[in-house]
Design brief:
single chain; alpha/beta; eight-stranded mixed β-sheet; seven-stranded mixed β-sheet; 17 helices; 32% helix
Length: 558
């Protein structure tokens, strides 16, 4: 695309995660060389029927892939690395990650046919390396997953701190606490720009500690001596897994895992030295052989995902796990906006079966992995940036964090959206252009643009139905027989065949009106048939269906 990009300036270009929560993809550019930070997905969107996964369109950097030095992953959440199996073949760049994220990514890539082609470089916690004009240092943070990192990116134009997802947790249960001393040292060094997580900017105070959740879970389990206990949580929250396991053991319960992603995460964690104190986690099948009051199941499906373990358990069609009246299900996770209905559906199914349901609204059994307003203010005080660029949020989150930054006397704030090209240095920070951006939808095994004809037509079919019309014309352009019309998504009542006859007559009248040249032109005939149907269909049904016309031409024998 025709976009002027100055070489002697430090540029920041978000292609995903600025304007929505999820599918993070960020670019830093200097001297016609580019560094990518994260490559994530999001899960479905309203108005995208049949699409479970969406991700940023990387076309902008794909056109410059020979200038892409590498992809740096801040952590292993799907919204930060989940797009790698889909987009890496278009970029083919080296990847840099700390041990857990690297191990987790390798497990995901094992399901592709190009896993052995991806160069994954493991950087130890707190490690530092150089790529072109970028000097990248990992800074250990805390979040709701193992080994989350901020990045200190040193460039010829200044130091940028890219926070990734983070919070300040003095008692994270597993892994190290946030490296506050390093953040303060970076502030002393001089931070030009802070690129900062905005997810919880509307939450007052500090985000709670995982250590408190562990205590509360143990207390809750002690108050539930009878029946099986099943806990639904995010599979990637290894600290929560450990908290649940320890709380179960404190209450004389062994632990089983139900859900493929739980097994994948625990295997990745053990491979890099975590969870090694818990070698006896049971399979879901083995757990069902243990007396009810001596077992606890950790399950996937905290968001009501239809194919996850908790959903299948609630519906009674899980191949192994069964819960009975008097058992207890604990939802130790937050409700991601948009998932409320699916979560409520699963919880209602459980309650109808006499199963006790406990959520974070009932007991303090969940804390966020993102910073509240007090945590954000502390980050500003530690790093003392000249520029604040809020990311990882909807527009309202970004604007609110920019306002908070101004209150905290950060001199400059720039609010991005996907595709904005922001000059960080030299001079004042501001938007200098717009890069190509967009959303790709995973449709089966292919990637489609969100605004593609396929997606647009599918939406139209969902809301207005589809009508198939077959018309046969002879060599003179005369109709042979009546048009064949089928509309399975529009007609299923008695008497609908009368309506179809009416529409067939409309087609016949319109074709008869075509002149000699038009009737021999396939495109003109198809357009005429669609025009003949649109108004009567809209008048009789109140719908604007997708009309698919199949035109057949035959030669009649003398």
């Amino acid at each position: 695309m025709d976009l002027y990009l100055p070489k002697d300036e430090l540029l920041f270009v978000p292609l995903g995660g600025s304007g929505e929560i999820g599918m993070n993809l960020n670019l830093y550019g200097y001297d016609d060389q580019w560094l990518m930070v994260d490559m994530g997905v999001s899960f479905g969107e309203e108005g995208l029927p049949g699409v479970d996964v969406v991700m940023p369109d990387p076309s902008f950097i794909e056109e410059r892939k020979d200038k892409l030095l590498g992809l740096v992953l801040t952590h292993a959440h799907e919204d930060h690395l989940g797009a790698v199996p889909y987009l890496w073949p278009r970029l083919k760049c080296p990847i840099y990650a700390t041990p857990f994220a690297a191990e987790f990514l390798k497990a995901k890539l094992a399901e592709t046919d190009f896993a052995d082609q991806v160069p994954i470089h493991v950087i130890e916690l707190g490690g530092r390396f150089k790529k072109g004009p970028f000097d990248i240092e990992f800074v250990t943070m805390t979040h709701s997953i193992l080994e989350p990192n901020a990045l200190a990116i040193r460039t010829p134009k200044g130091l940028v701190v890219h926070t990734g997802d983070w919070k300040f947790d003095p008692d994270p249960q597993i892994g190290e606490a946030s490296d506050v001393k390093k953040l303060e040292a970076l502030g002393d060094e001089g931070v030009m720009a802070l690129i900062c997580d905005s997810t919880n900017v509307f939450s007052e105070g500090q985000t709670g500690s995982e250590g408190e959740v562990a205590k509360n879970l143990s207390k809750l389990f002690a108050e539930t001596p009878q029946g099986r206990i099943a806990v639904a949580c995010f599979a990637t929250n290894v600290a929560r897994l450990q908290s649940i396991v320890e709380a179960a053991h404190e209450n004389n319960r062994c632990v089983g895992l139900a859900g493929r992603s739980l097994n994948r995460v625990t295997e990745a964690a053990r491979a890099v030295g975590y969870l090694t104190s818990y070698p006896n986690l049971l399979t879901d099948e083995d757990a069902m052989e243990v007396p009810k009051d001596q077992v606890l199941l950790i399950c996937t499906g905290s968001q009501g995902e239809p194919r996850a373990a908790m959903s299948r358990i609630a519906k009674g069609d899980h191949p192994t796990v069964q819960l009975d009246p008097g058992d207890t299900v604990v939802f130790s996770a937050r409700e991601i906006p948009g998932n409320e209905k699916s979560i409520g559906y699963i919880q209602n199914l459980l309650i109808r079966r006499g199963i006790r349901v406990i959520t974070a609204r009932d007991e303090p059994i969940h804390v966020s992995g993102h910073p509240g307003r007090q945590d954000l203010a502390r980050m500003y005080q530690l790093t003392r940036p000249k520029i604040l660029v809020p990311v990882h949020g909807e527009t309202r989150h970004l604007c609110e964090q920019a306002a908070l930054g101004a209150e905290c006397q950060i001199p400059e704030q720039v609010i991005p959206h996907d595709g904005t090209v922001i000059r960080l240095s030299p001079g004042s920070a501001h938007v200098i252009g717009v890069a190509e951006s967009g959303v790709l939808c995973l449709d089966g095994g292919r990637l489609l643009k969100r605004d593609s004809d396929t997606i647009r037509n599918r939406n139209r079919i969902v809301w207005n139905g589809v009508m198939f019309v077959t018309v046969v014309l002879n060599q003179f352009g005369e109709m042979v027989g009546e048009p064949m019309i089928t509309a399975p998504s529009l007609f299923d009542e008695d008497g609908d065949d009368v309506r179809l006859d009416h529409f067939a007559a409309e087609i016949g009248n319109r074709v008869d009106q075509l002149d000699d040249d038009e009737v021999l032109d396939d495109a003109a005939v198809i357009l005429a048939i669609r025009q003949a149907l649109r108004r009567p269909v809209r008048q009789r049904l109140g719908k604007r269906p997708l009309i698919e016309v199949h035109l057949v031409r035959v030669k009649e024998k003398n």
